[in-house]
Amino acid sequence: MTTLMQTLCGLSMIAVGGLKTWLHMGSISVLSFPTCAGSTATLQMSQTGWLEQTHCWGCYVLAVGLVILGISASRAYKQRRSVAVGMD
């Protein structure tokens, strides 16, 4: 994959993951958990911490996008340095 495509992939994953996390934080006010006995336990999201409110698949997509973008920046820097060293 070229550096440009890798950068665009990373940026799009950051955008999608960030958007999903933001939408997830604003849309859920109560979580319902089914229990083994057949009943349901509910948890008010207003009583939970920030980490519990933001946790969804968007977190993982955002993190992977940041890693891909970091790798892409590293590759671009190495390519630029190799060209600069070759010109000296």
Please outline the helices and strands.
Layout (H helix, E strand, L loop, with lengths): L2 H25 L2 E5 L5 E5 L5 H5 L2 H31 L1
Antiparallel strand pairs: 1-2
Helix pairs in contact: 1-3
Q: How large a portion of the residues is in β-strands, by DSSP E?
A: 5-15%
Outline: rod-shaped
| Distance, first to last CA | 29 Å
Structural class: mainly alpha
Largest sheet: 2 strands, antiparallel
Average pLDDT value?
81
Written overview of the protein:
The protein is mainly alpha-helical. Helix content is 69%, strand content 11%. It contains 3 helices and 2 strands. A hairpin with a 5-residue loop joins strand 1 (30-34) and strand 2 (40-44). The protein is rod-shaped.
